[in-house]
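[INFO] parsing input record for C2H2-type domain-containing protein
[DEBUG] input buffer:
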Amino acid sequence: KFKHRSSLNTHKKTHTGEKPFECNFCKAKFSGRSSFQYHIRIHTGEKPFNCQLCSLKFKVKSALTRHMRIHTGEKPLKCDLCEAKFFEQSALLNHKKIHTVGKPYECVYCEAKFSLLANLTSHKIVHTTVKQFECELCKAKFKHRSSLNTHKKTHTGEKPFECNFCKAKFSGRSSFQYHIRIHTGEKPFECELCKSKFNAKTTLTTHIRTHTGEKPFECKFCK
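[DEBUG] output buffer:
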């Protein structure tokens, strides 16, 4: 069943095979107008949906809606098995694998386990000294492409993330999200041992050492 007659009419074409919308660039055919319009933008590069807070542009309205949650901090998607909340559906689905399939991907170096192969691949770089992503402007090297992309903005001056509360601007998503929590008071990182909460993961990591007694930093002169 459908809320709108137009949605029903588009759906019916999946049964009849009718595809009345044809791309003039590559002759691909589509049953629905919206999917056809999105496809055309792949050829033209048009991004008609603009963020009014940071001027980023998007091809589809749904992508703009997801992006706006970065500015507002909204996490409308909640895991029905725990209290975790997420910005977008893909992150929620990845999270649910923790409950359904556990963590089948194990690091051969330290036995850390992950629910996603991509997370294991990213983690393995910690054990190596390889920094394969190099900045062509200053030759600085990074282990992750995302770190390189953030670094490049120090050369261009680009700061696409703007705080809706105080108009401060940031080049990286993580520093922007941390800043937003100063305004909202959100503390999403909770200690499992004493339930203390923190607004940054690094602060939680430091706090946990008060429970474990871990002292990872050793003086090279008097050890």
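[INFO] The domain at 1-72 is CATH 3.30.160.60 (Double Stranded RNA Binding Domain).
[INFO] shutting down worker
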